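Data availability (excerpt). All sequences and predicted token strings are deposited with the supplementary files. A representative entry, DUF6788 domain-containing protein, is shown inline so that the format can be inspected without opening the archive.
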Amino acid sequence: MSDDPPTPPVAIPDDLCETLEDCTPTQLREAAKYAEKLAELRERDERLDAGDGSGAAGPGSDGRPAAVPTKASITTKTINENQYYYWQWREGDEIHSKYHGPVHGGE
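Structure token line:
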């Protein structure tokens, strides 16, 4: 590893770079984890807004299968250290889920 500080990417605003430069290594690692999760959320939202239907078949601009009501929302479930998106909604006292697709890869 070089003794020189890394060059910030051009796409990162200067004020963010300055803030990151003042952080401890622990804060930087936590910021990186947060940024990764935020990027995943925004990418998912973009896919849903585009209506590409990743992981779901059927009609609707949001890729929602016919069996999933419009009131359903997307949730993330972790199974065996892997994350998956599920449509989830309530009918009376029961909560229903339907598989949507993987969070990482295979999309």
